[in-house]
Every structure is written in structure tokens, then in C-alpha cells.
Write a structure and sequence with these properties.
Chain lengths: ~240, ~625
């Protein structure tokens, strides 16, 4: 069912229950995000996408990436309260990761060059969880996860040991908005790709991706070929 | 144990239990909940059993191992029936006297009675207690009276008759309507009307629905859920069965943290007994209704008390809240409609069903109905659990029931609602306690913790303590809560260390309002409360810390000095002898002085001085 919502004065029709950010896209309104990606389920951790919503007479701030649109909803994406909150988020992130170019650019766009908070941490990861979710939802591997709680939260492999399930696809490197996951080649073992996240290396394929000569690969394909052959013979 | 197949069976069993009761028997109700166990009530039990064996009175005296009586300050506590003699601070060595004097000869032992510290009067029975006089025990009625590990005791006390009434005479919509009309609001903190929650969930589409009882109590200084689970587990189970029948659920969960082993134990026993009796399982009381309860043990994360995180934890993933909507009543545990209520909320249900919505809504204020259990702790004389009617004033709770502040110090503030609550000052002490007035005062009802503070508590330090607690208990998912708390903690630590600057208070306020508006879940949304409420009522203390670099309470070590008042000091030399740093000098019977360069501000001399000659400057 389609519902119409008013976003910054424009009437937009979208599916009921679809997130507000879809309506903004339809209306051509840009909403800054950090943890949102079209290919992934909404997560709502960066809160940068907040918008002000009036629903049932209540006016409040919600995250547009996962708040479902409903009939009669009025949305404002650029009020003073929204701008102020976004600025505060970027400021807080700048404390955590002062050297990340993306955050510096964002801060400049929002009109705060420097953070008013004095502490400086030497972090690069903003814990948006994109890499973790991409690895699990799109790649289907789940080699990394978010470990610990609160201030100690971090992205890591299980028990911070070299992962035996990582396929070295590099998706996490690609999707990371701050570029804190780097792809490095290990020079000691040629052809071996490994991902380096902080201090833990993910060692992927035990046979260094020598697929043509790999025993595991050949047996796997033998099985697949047999299944396909059986399937075809049944069909005829 | 006899299987209860129909509702008339239940009444027959109740009668037979009451008939079997030996009215000649003396019953000693001894508290064996966590608080009294910490004060060796298990040893008291052992000593009493030995004495009874010695006199050969096994058939004449019964020791009933009950849950919490509420007056935890003076544990271990026992009540001797039929005269209801109330003994407190019972030590194992008194067991012989108790049996030989009180039980056999009927003499009251004066040294075991409670003595009012102000009037020096002795209190003989439970009813005469000032602590109990202003209370209204409704939910907590059975705790301290029945043996929680014995279903017969609960049935004899009228238990499960509400379930019988609900299943026999009411339809699910009628039950929901009764709960809505009663005005019961969630006791876990949010205060959402329970009946409305049930109505939404019962109307939600889906065949499979779940009931969850939230027993994940994590507030520092709060233990009412634990005591309820330990002292009256069947009331929670009965409430859950009624709720399940009302919304059409067949599976229930009770989420308890692993730190509550006795609560887990008692609830497991209670569930097993209810299953054996046929009150849980298939075809309950012959009505064709099936319901089972499982206990899920949490690892003690504070954030798992948040409903979405709790459900994710039950599902077996790490407990991290998700954004709402969808609300649990539509999409909860494993995506199915779920009713999640606090254990205290469920314990209210049997009474509402039995006595009706009108009776319940006649108790309390216009917006908050019924009674509420509070854990009264901190610098108050009578520490313990109390249950009062909604609308009772803070003054009545702290001064009449709690006996006022200890050691003649002055009352400063009371912190309600756990770490996410706020501090209420003396100026608002005549405020009636209910959900809305607390919110209006900048605090929350929370699960019902009340920490009383006197003049030796620094309010900036209190705010820093709670923010520090939340900093490590926040899940760390959303930026406002994780990074906001980190900055708040940093600013508050600076102020406490004497590094506060102009603009810090404004920065704290801006951060607080930002966090409240944008945080993902209730934890982040209420986390700034301790900061905002202390700024609101104790701004002068913040100013003194930042501008004058003074902490008048004597807590922030960089911001005060201990000095000896030469007029009051009589030169008893106690402070000089006990000072670990040898910072105090002076001759006998002459005023002493403290060398500020050597003093480490440990406070030993301050606490030792009987003439109160040592002051905070």
C-alpha cells in the first residue's frame, strides 16, 4: 500500500512501512549518513540521518534510515534542531577520530571546523558496523563482528584470532567509510592476501588461493558436477 | 503433590491444606533471602534446628524459611507465630534462648526486639513497627509469610484462585479490559499502561505469541525484583499465566541475571511444582489452555534490561537494543508479537483479577494506580524494602518509614530510578511519588530504587559516579550514547579534579539534551538525568567546583582540606595515632593541627573525631 507523506513541504508517495530516507531520495533531498547502505538492513547506529517528524501531534527526532513512514506524517530534514544534532554527532566523532578526512570534510560542511571537546583519541574506526553487516548479510561469511560493550566496543574476529572463514574478498575494505580496514599483501607467502584490522590479521585460504591445484576445490566441484548431472538426467 | 485438574479441585486442595494445618504448632518465620543470608541467617537456621532437636520438639515447632520481610537493615529477621513476636539482628548464639524462653515459656527477649533509635521504645510485634505502619503491602504481601519453595503454602494463602477465576469466568478480552481499567502501569521504569500493551499484542496478527517477565534488575542499590522472585515466585508465575491466557500465548520466558542464584533457584522450583500440579503445561485446569515457562539466565549486562536488547539476548545474540518501531507487541521475540513486563507488574495481576479493577484503581493517584515497592538504601536509618501506595510523599518515605538520615546528619537529596534517574532535593521532599510528578521533578520512577544522600555526598561526584556506571554499561551501538557519555564523563571528572572551566555546565546541558533527543534506546535517552537534575537543583555546587575550586561535601580530593578547629579539639590524640601519613601533630590535651602537604585526605581522622573538631574547608 502506498502512503503519502510530506517531506520538507513536498508531497511524496512511498510504500507504507518503507523508511523515511526512501521518501527523501524520491524527493531529491540529501540526508547525510554514515552507517546506512542500500544493500544492507538499516542499523541506526550513527544517528546522522536524523530528521524531525510530526506524527499524531508528536514532534520528535527519529533516524530516517529505519523509521517507517506512515500516513499523515510530516517530515523536516533541515530544521535547526536537526542541524544542531548532526553537528554534535560529527563533533563527537571528531574527538574519536580526529584524522579521518571524511569526518573533517563533513564538519566543514556543517560549519564546525573543530570540535569543542578537548580530548583527542587516535582512533580511525567509527563503529558504524558496515563491514560487519556487509560480511554477514551480503558476503554471507560473518568473519568479523562487534566485540565488547560500551567504550570498549570494537570490530574484531572471534577471540581476535586469525579468521579461518574469511575469504579475503575485501568487501570490508571497500565499504569502510573511514578507510580504517586496509588490504595488505603478505610478502612472506606469495599470492596470499590478508586483511589487516588493527593488530589482528585475517589469514584466509589455507591453500593460498591455488584453486586449480587445490584438493578441496576439486572435490567440491566433483560433487557439484555429480549433482548437476543427476538433476539433468531426472529432467529428461 | 496432587494434580489439579479442574477449578473445583483447586478449592478442595486449598481446604485440605488448611485443614491439615496444625494450629497448635509454633511457626518461626525466618528470613532466608539474600540480605539476611549475608548476615548469617543460614547459621541461625542451623542453630535453631539443633536446638529443636535437642528439646525433641520437631513436631511442635516448624521453621518456615521465608523470603524478604523488608527490614533488611536489622537482619537476620524472624517472626514467631502465633504471637507474631518480631526479632531482629538474631545471632546463632541466641537460638537456645529463643526456643527455651520465647517458644516454650512465652517470654519476650528484650535484647532481640527492635529499639527505636530516637524514642528508645521497644517494638514487640510486626504491626507496631513504624516502618510497617505507613506501608501498604499488596504485591509484597506473601513475601516473609510463606515458604517460597512450597506451592502448598502459596495455595493456602489464596494463591492461584485468581487464575481459577480468570480461566473459569472471564474471557481474554474481559481480562484485558480489567487490567486496562485498573490503571496498572509498567513497574520496570517506563510506566506504559500494562493493559494497553496487552490489548495491542492480543490484537496483533499471528498464531504464536510470547510472554516475557523481565527480572533483569541492574540498578545499583535496587533489589525489589530479586526479593520478589525469591520471596513470592508463584505470584509472578500466576500473573504470567493470566497474561498468556489474555493474549493467547503458549510460551513464556523469565529473564533473570545469573547474579541472582536464589531467585533462579526459587523460580525453577516454583515452575516445576506448578507443572507437577498441572497449573503449567497442557490443559491447565481442564480448560484446554496450554502454557509453559522457561527461565533464561542473563550474564548481568545492564542494557539487557531494555526490552529489545533482552529479547535479542533470549534469542541467543549479544544484547544490543534495536530501534523501535516495530514495537515488541507487534514484532518481538523471534519476530512474533510479545508482551514484555517487569516481574513486579506480573505480581500485581492476581490481585487485580481477584479484587477487581475498581478496587485497584481506588489505590494511588489519578494517573498512577496501586502500590509500588521501593528499595530504600543509602544514608537512611531503616534500610530495606518498602511498599507504599502511589502518592505517598517522599517525606513520609524517608522520615516516617526510613527513620530519617543517619547519625544526625542533614538530608541533602534522594536519588530515584537507578542510574538513569535524578536527584530530588529537600525543597521537593513533600512531593507525592508517582510516575508523572517524578518525571516533572527531573527523575524517573525506574524500577524503584531510592538512594538517600546526606551532606557528605558531593552532587557532582554523584553525577560522575552514575555516568561512569552507564559509560561501561552502555551497549555502544549508537553514537549519541557512547560518545556523548564519554564526553560527559570527561567533563565531570575534570570538574571533580579541579580542572573545570567556564562553559562546562552549558556544554553538559547541551550534550544532555542532544542525547535525550537522539539516543537509540531508553538507556541513552535517560542517561543524562543524573547530570541534568543535579545541575537543576545543585548548580551552586557545580559553580563552587568550577570557579571557587571547592568541594564543600569533602569528596573531591583536590578541592578541599581537612582542618582542626582549635576550639573544639581537646587533644585526645586519636587522630594523630590513626593518621596513616603522620600528617597530624600536636601535644596531649592541646589542639592538634594537620599538615596539608602530608595529608592524603583519606578521611580517617574526620570519621574518628568524636567532638567533630575536624572540618572540611
Amino acid at each position: 500500500m502506498k502512503v503519502s507523506v510530506i517531506i520538507d513541504g513536498q508531497m511524496v508517495q512511498i510504500e507504507q512501512g518503507a523508511p523515511i530516507i526512501d521518501a527523501a531520495k524520491k524527493a531529491g533531498i540529501f540526508i547525510p549518513t554514515l552507517c546506512y547502505h542500500e544493500a544492507l538492513k538499516p542499523y541506526g547506529s550513527c544517528c546522522l540521518c536524523i530528521v524531525e517528524v510530526i506524527q499524531d501531534g508528536q514532534r520528535r527526532l527519529v533516524t530516517s534510515c529505519n523509521f517507517p513512514a506512515a500516513v499523515g506524517m510530516e517530515i523536516f530534514t533541515n530544521t535547526a534542531r536537526v542541524r544542531q544534532s548532526r553537528r554534535m554527532i560529527v563533533e563527537l566523532l571528531l574527538v574519536r577520530c580526529p584524522d579521518v578526512p571524511l569526518l573533517q570534510t563533513m564538519a566543514k560542511q556543517m560549519g564546525t571546523g573543530l570540535s569543542r571537546f578537548k580530548t583527542r583519541e587516535a582512533n580511525e574506526c567509527i563503529l558504524c558496523g558496515l563491514c560487519v553487516r556487509f560480511c554477514e548479510e551480503v558476503v554471507g561469511v560473518g568473519a568479523i563482528g562487534l566485540a565488547n560493550r560500551g567504550v570498549d566496543r570494537e570490530v574484531a574476529t572471534p577471540f581476535k584470532m586469525a579468521s579461518d572463514v574469511c575469504i579475503g574478498c575485501g568487501s570490508c575494505t571497500y565499504i569502510c567509510p573511514t578507510g580504517c580496514i586496509k588490504m595488505v599483501s603478505d610478502r612472506k607467502t606469495p599470492n596470499l592476501r590478508s586483511l589487516k584490522m588493527g593488530n589482528c590479521s585475517l589469514v584466509p585460504c589455507p591453500n593460498s588461493y591455488q584453486c586449480e591445484t587445490c584438493q578441496i576445490e576439486q572435490e567440491f566441484f566433483k560433487d557439484i558436477k555429480r549433482v548437476i548431472a543427476e538433476f539433468r538426467s531426472k529432467g529428461q | 503433590m496432587q494434580k489439579i485438574r479442574t477449578i473445583s479441585d483447586l478449592e478442595d486442595i486449598r481446604e485440605s491444606i488448611l485443614q491439615d494445618k496444625d494450629s497448635e504448632k509454633t511457626i518461626i518465620r525466618l528470613c532466608l533471602s539474600t540480605g539476611c543470608r549475608a548476615q548469617k541467617s543460614l547459621k541461625v537456621n542451623e542453630a535453631l534446628e539443633n536446638e529443636i532437636k535437642k528439646y525433641g520438639l520437631q513436631n511442635k515447632i516448624e521453621i518456615k524459611k521465608t523470603g524478604c520481610h523488608g527490614f533488611c537493615e536489622m537482619g537476620p529477621i524472624m517472626v514467631i507465630e502465633p504471637a507474631n513476636i518480631f526479632y531482629c539482628n538474631v545471632k546463632p548464639k541466641y537460638a537456645g534462648d529463643i526456643i527455651s524462653e520465647t517458644v516454650l515459656n512465652g517470654n519476650v527477649i528484650n535484647r532481640l526486639l527492635w529499639k527505636d533509635p530516637l524514642t528508645k521504645e521497644l517494638t514487640k510485634t510486626e504491626k507496631d513497627f513504624p516502618v510497617y505502619r505507613k506501608q501498604r503491602k499488596n504485591v509484597f504481601y506473601n513475601s516473609g509469610k510463606i515458604d517460597p519453595t512450597d506451592i502448598d503454602d502459596y495455595i493456602a494463602a489464596g494463591g492461584y484462585s485468581a487464575l481459577g477465576k480468570a480461566l473459569a469466568t472471564m474471557t481474554p478480552p474481559e481480562i484485558v479490559k480489567t487490567v486496562v481499567d485498573s490503571g496498572l502501569r509498567g513497574r520496570g521504569g517506563g510506566g506504559f499502561p500494562t493493559g494497553i500493551k496487552w490489548r495491542i499484542c492480543s490484537a496483533a496478527p499471528g498464531d504464536i505469541k510470547y510472554i516475557i517477565a523481565n527480572g533483569d534488575e541492574g540498578d545499583p542499590g535496587a533489589f525489589m525484583d530479586r526479593s520478589l522472585m525469591e520471596g513470592d515466585p508463584h505470584a509472578i508465575i500466576e500473573g504470567m499465566i493470566i497474561a498468556a491466557f489474555a493474549i493467547g500465548a503458549n510460551q513464556g520466558f523469565i529473564y533473570i541475571r545469573k547474579e541472582y542464584p536464589i531467585a533462579i533457584d526459587h523460580l525453577s522450583i516454583a515452575i516445576k511444582q506448578a507443572e507437577e500440579c498441572g497449573l503449567l503445561g497442557n490443559d491447565i485446569l481442564g480448560t484446554g489452555f496450554n502454557f509453559t515457562i522457561k527461565i533464561d539466565r542473563g550474564a548481568g549486562a545492564f542494557v539487557c534490561g531494555e526490552e529489545t536488547a533482552l529479547m535479542i539476548s533470549i534469542e541467543g545474540r549479544s544484547g544490543i537494543p534495536r530501534s523501535r518501531p516495530p514495537y515488541p507487541a507487534f514484532e518481538g521475540l523471534w519476530g512474533k508479537p510479545t508482551v514484555i513486563n517487569n516481574v513486579e507488574t506480573f505480581a500485581n495481576i492476581p490481585k487485580i483479577i481477584l479484587k477487581g479493577a475498581d478496587w485497584y484503581s481506588s489505590i494511588g493517584t489519578s494517573t498512577s494506580k496501586g502500590t509500588k515497592i521501593f528499595s530504600l538504601v543509602g544514608k537512611v536509618r531503616n534500610t530495606g524494602l518498602i511498599e507504599v501506595e502511589m502518592g505517598t510523599t517522599l517525606r513520609e518515605i524517608i522520615f516516617d518509614i526510613g527513620g530519617g538520615v543517619r547519625k544526625g546528619k542533614r538530608f541533602k537529596a534522594v536519588q530515584t530510578g537507578g542510574p538513569s534517574g535524578g536527584c530530588i532535593p529537600i525543597s521537593r521532599i513533600d512531593m507525592p511519588i508517582d510516575y508523572d510528578s517524578l518525571k516533572d521533578a527531573g527523575a524517573i520512577m525506574g524500577s524503584g530504587g531510592m538512594i538517600v544522600m546526606d551532606e557528605t555526598s558531593c552532587m557532582v561526584d554523584v553525577a560522575r559516579y552514575f555516568i561512569n556506571f552507564l559509560l561501561f554499561e552502555s551497549c555502544g551501538k549508537c553514537i549519541p550514547c557512547r560518545e556523548g557519555l564519554k564526553q560527559m564523563h570527561h567533563i565531570l571528572t575534570n570538574i571533580c579534579e579541579g580542572l573545570g572551566e567556564k562553559g562546562d555546565i552549558e556544554r553538559l546541558e547541551e550534550l544532555a539534551h542532544f542525547m535525550m533527543a537522539t539516543s537509540l534506546c531508553g538507556l541513552g535517552g535517560t542517561a543524562p538525568n543524573p547530570v541534568l537534575s543535579t545541575i537543576r537543583y545543585f548548580r551552586d555546587e557545580y559553580d563552587a567546583h568550577i570557579y571557587d575550586k571547592k568541594c564543600s561535601a569533602g569528596v573531591c580530593k583536590n578541592l578541599f582540606e581537612y582542618v582542626i578547629d582549635a576550639e573544639l579539639c581537646n587533644g585526645c590524640t586519636i587522630c594523630k595515632l590513626k593518621c596513616p601519613e603522620k600528617a597530624i601533630s600536636g601535644e596531649k590535651k592541646k589542639p592538634h593541627s594537620i599538615n596539608p602537604l602530608l595529608c592524603i585526605k583519606c578521611g580517617i581522622c574526620f570519621n574518628l573525631c568524636k567532638r567533630e573538631a575536624i572540618r572540611v574547608k
